[in-house]
Amino acid sequence: DIQMTQSPSSLSASVGDRVTITCRASQSISRHLNWYQQKPGKAPNLLIYDASSLQTGVPSRFSGSGSGTDFTLTISSLQPEDFATYSCQQTYSTPLTFGPGTKVEIK
Amino acid sequence: QVQLQESGPGLVKPSETLSLTCTVSGVSTSNSYWSWIRQPPGKGLEWIGYIYYSGHTNYNPSLKSRVTISEDTSKNQFSLRLRSVTAADTAVYYCARGWTTVTTYPPFFDSWGQGTLVTVSS
User: Fold this and answer.
1) What is the DSSP letter of B110?
2) What residues contact residue B65 under an 8 Å CB cut-off, 6+ apart?
3) Is the pLDDT of residue B16 over 80?
4) Is A103 helix (H, G, I), strand (E, B) or coil?
5) With an 8 Å Cβ cutoff, are A31 and B112 in contact?
6) Which of B60, B61, B104 is opposite residue A91, by nearest beta carbon?
7) Which of A11-20, A68-77, B78-87, B97-106 has the lowest mean pLDDT?
8) Which of B44, B94, B110 sits opposite A87 (nearest CB)?
9) CB contact burial B31-54 (16+ within 10 A = b; e otherwise)
């Protein structure tokens, strides 16, 4: 199985901050990496697929980059509605696996 | 607009079978990949498996011996059965639509149900 790790596990930031979250795969997954946002008590919501493609309806302040084993999700200017947990997922091979999540909290 | 809704018992006894159904609206279940994903309280997401294109299935090997995913296209539903459950199977269970692109397979998940908490306890 491909193991996914994320850093940091949590962070505190202010509205307007630029936030970067890192995801690392245990082996190369090309660009088969997706990002989800999850708010408490809600289902995950797809933000980015194929490492850098923005899902329809997702604000342009979200962006993704990377390939191989190292990937990044960036929020260019953090908004109040962005406080949530962010998880990465690889779709290079089954079993599909997710990262443990990064919780973005209000400073 | 695709909508998914999970239904089923919220409490299952140890050693029994967990059964959930996902009802899909807005699109036919004859297309796409239809998946189950779970999340134990306070933990990360775990993919259980999916069904696609007239009944083909793909399961997580960690659960494969206990899992069956099936579909009823006449009702636009798909279902999960997880046998011999233990407390470790307590989780929020989500159904989701898997989607592929010309450059992506296996699928990512672009539409999700709201999730349903299933507790395994006597």
Assistant:
1) E
2) none
3) yes
4) strand
5) no
6) B104
7) B97-106
8) B44
9) ebbbbbbbbeeeebbbbbbbbbee
